[in-house]
Amino acid sequence: MTGFRLLLSKKWLGYLGVVVAFALICAMLANWQWNRHEEKMAVVHQLEQRYDAPPVPVEAALPGASSYDPGAEWQPVEMRGRYLVDETLLVRNRPYNGQPGFAVLVPFQIDGGRVFVVDRGWVPTGNDQDAPDVVPAPPTGQVTVVARIKPGEPAVGDRTAVAGTNQIATIQLSEVQKRVDREIYSAAYGQLLSEDPTPATTPVKYAEPEIDTGLNLSYFVQWIMFAAGAFLFLFYVIRQEQRNSRADADEAAEAAREGDARVDERPRRGARPRTRARHDDDVEDEILDAVSR
Fold first, then answer.
1. d(CA 183, CA 125)
2. Going by DSSP bridges, is the β-strand pair 89-91/167-168 parallel, antiparallel, or unpaired?
3. CA geometry: angle at 220 spanning 218 and 221, to 5°?
4. How far apart are CA 244 and CA 218, in angstroms?
5. What Cα–Cα distance (Å) separates residue 74 from each residue in 49, 52, 71, 142, 177?
6. Which end of the chain is more exposed for a tag (fewer CB within 10 A), N or C?
7. CA pair distance 57, 113, nearest whole angstrom
């Protein structure tokens, strides 16, 4: 059976359908892994472009109270005004380098503008209570602040603020707005980069984030190889089937030839034995034998 005719049989059409379905699944998984890789690389590229970029006025990066461009994340912004120290908030459950602690949020009143929430850094949990032992105070009076833009955080499960304290569960700016008397930027806040004047002590500043690009690209290649391998395996099986079919056909042909040869060698039933035709030499030999007698 030729390769084309072999593929048209129900058995091999079924095998081909299974391989095609498997390859399609592999292709979808490969595409998903590629998209995840592209998303992570986009984050890495944005971090490289924005993290150490020159600061721009906060009004240029955030033209409205609720405006936020995801492409502006990590962009440093500069503002001048004063901290609203009495409205300081602590964000719970903020581990840093494996230690439990809090993020320190201080609303910043921009001169002639809105309030921008500044994350001044991290402080550890106290030794004897579920609160920091010390929260370094920000500079007083007129301050120039440079901070990197970050989007506000969503609510997390059933984590809520602690009643009767200045502790909140996440940097959910709608929750922050409830605790600040003035209008704040409601879509973005900033991680502190610098303050002028610089205080003697400050919360721990955050290190530059490390984006884990993971193994998505490797998984993408693996799924493509799995799909290609399925077709190669099917091709190998078909070739083996063809070889086996040819070998069986050759053996059958050889057996048929041997059977025909045995049939030709058997004498026909009722046939006379063949006699050798007489020649002149035979006649002379008979005459000589008769004379000698």
1. 30
2. parallel
3. 65
4. 38
5. 9, 8, 9, 24, 22
6. C
7. 12
Distance CA 267, CA 236 (A): 50
Q: Specify the residue for token string 């379905």.
A: 21
Distances (CA, A) of 218 to 29, 36, 101, 124, 225: 12, 12, 36, 39, 11
Token couple for 55: 């600061």
β partners of residue 192 = 147
Q: How far apart are CA 96 and CA 74, in angstroms?
A: 19
Q: Please give the Cα distance from 179 to 64 (Å, whole number).
A: 20
Confidence (pLDDT) at 285? 63
Q: What residues does 85 pair with on adjacent strands? A: none
Secondary structure letter of residue 53 according to DSSP: S
What one-character-per-residue DSSP string does 91-157 give?
A: ES---BTTB-EEEEEEEEEETTS-EEEEEEEEEEPPSSSSS-S--PPPPPSSEEEEEEEEEPPPP-T
Q: Cβ(145)–Cβ(109) under 8 Å? A: no
How far apart are the C-alpha atoms of 179 and 287, rounded to whole Å?
A: 149
pLDDT for res 150: 95
pLDDT tens digit string along 93-150?
999 888 999 999 999 999 988 999 999 999 999 887 888 999 999 999 999 999 999 9
Residue 82 phi, psi (nearest 5): -145, 150
Mean predicted confidence (pLDDT) in 269-290: 58
The total number of residues written for the chain in this structure? 293
Round to whole Å and give the CA distance between 22 and 24. Answer: 5
Q: Could you give the maximum distance between any two Cα atoms of the chain, in Å?
A: 163
Q: Per residue in 31-67, is it b (16+ CB within 10 Å) or e — as a string?
A: eebbebbeebeeeeebbeebeeeebeebeebbeeeee
Tokens of residue 147, six digits: 């901070």
Q: How far apart are CA 181 and CA 230, in angstroms?
A: 65
